[in-house]
Design a protein that fits this description.
Length: 148
């Protein structure tokens, strides 16, 4: 039986760019980890080692975020009519994705998690800032209510 075409059953194309709030979250979580570590009763050299590891991770995370934010070749997420996900990477390579159940769907935020054919796990944060508002609304409806 064929379903009728409506705005919610049409394919969804999402050119992905990380949201600005992600940089704030990265900074907040790393700063909070350092504060928590300062309150723990450990030897000073262990604290110094952990703090330096947290700071290196912070630098790596922020540099990765900025590289993704400035990139002109963006990742494109595709959801077809049969609810099959695929991704076109920055180098124009297409990859099929499997949607994980650990995602989060809210009125202002959608976090979708995927597993690739190679076993890699990918997460995408979608907000009104980085995805067109109507596309985000259609995606939320399909993720919540479509049981095909």
């Amino acid at each position: 039986m064929k379903h009728r075409d409506n705005a919610f059953s049409l394919p969804i194309v999402i050119p992905y760019q990380p949201p600005t709030q992600l940089a704030y979250f990265i900074t907040f979580s790393h700063f909070g980890a350092v504060l928590c570590l300062l309150t723990v009763n450990l030897m000073m050299w262990i604290k110094t080692l952990f703090i330096s590891l947290i700071l290196f991770n912070y630098i790596y995370s922020i540099l990765t975020y900025r590289r993704a934010k400035r990139s002109t070749n963006r990742t494109i997420l595709l959801l077809n009519r049969e609810n099959a996900w695929s991704m076109i990477g920055p180098n124009n390579s297409k990859q099929n994705l499997t949607l994980n159940a650990e995602g989060f769907v809210h009125r202002i935020l959608v976090i979708i998690r995927f597993k690739t054919a190679y076993g890699d796990k990918l997460s995408f944060i979608l907000t009104n800032e980085n995805v067109e508002k109507n596309t985000l609304r259609r995606l939320r409806v399909r993720l919540r209510h479509d049981n095909r």
